[in-house]
Design goal:
This protein is mostly helical and 183 residues long. The chain has a single domain, classed as Arp2/3 complex 21 kDa subunit ARPC3 (Orthogonal Bundle), CATH 1.10.1760. Helices cover 73% and strands 0% of the residues. The protein has helices at residues 12-32, 48-59, 61-79, 85-99, 111-139, 144-180. The longest helix is centred in the C-terminal third of the chain and has 37 residues, at 144-180. The N and C termini lie close together (6 Å).
């Protein structure tokens, strides 16, 4: 794991990790964009959200923000949907908020640290998807009820489920690889 001394550090390392996270999030999102959530507007099933939240928690808020904004834009372009800036910013927030606890995570295998990441990841999902859903009222001309029931609730629930299941797996696997490499 990287040096956790400065949560808000922004340099070459954060840009590189942000680009890796964006590529993974974008390609994995593209691969699952063919699975729309039932009764939802333009919301799809995205297991890649766990990767995004992992990158934020592991490498910090700037990495999570970059991975989310760029990765969501990449995934939408690859799918042929065009660019939806509000959903890209929402994804960026989903990655940025769990990055705020980066300095508080010491052991990616420890139950308490995994719970911290899942908890802050859940907060990131709430803030990011609420932002994207509510701005859809201005961007897409939908009403508040549709924004909440048709966009936010399905996006939140789908992202929460994959985060609760996949984020601990990613954290434990990352810790195992880091331990083998002597980091």
């Amino acid at each position: 794991m990287n040096d956790r001394a400065n949560t808000w550090e922004f340099g070459t390392r954060q840009v590189v990790y942000g680009a890796i996270g964006a590529a993974l999030y974008g390609v994995f999102s593209w691969a699952t964009n063919i699975f729309p959530l039932p009764a939802a507007g333009n919301v799809t099933f995205r297991p890649a959200v766990a990767v995004l939240i992992f990158f934020g928690a592991a490498y910090g808020p700037w990495v999570g923000l970059l991975a989310g904004i760029i990765g969501n834009t990449l995934g939408d372009i690859l799918t042929g949907w065009g660019v939806y800036w509000n959903w890209s910013v929402g994804s960026g927030l989903m990655g940025m908020i769990p990055g705020l606890i980066m300095a508080a995570i010491n052991d990616f295998r420890a139950r308490a640290d995994i719970m911290k990441a899942v908890g802050w990841g859940t907060l990131g999902i709430i803030v990011g998807m609420l932002f994207a859903s509510l701005t859809e009222m201005f961007v897409g001309g939908i009403d508040l009820s549709t924004a909440i029931v048709g966009y936010f609730v399905p996006a939140f629930l789908g992202n929460l489920i994959v985060t609760v299941i996949l984020l601990p797996i990613l954290m434990i696997a990352f810790a195992a690889v880091a331990a083998r490499r002597g980091r």
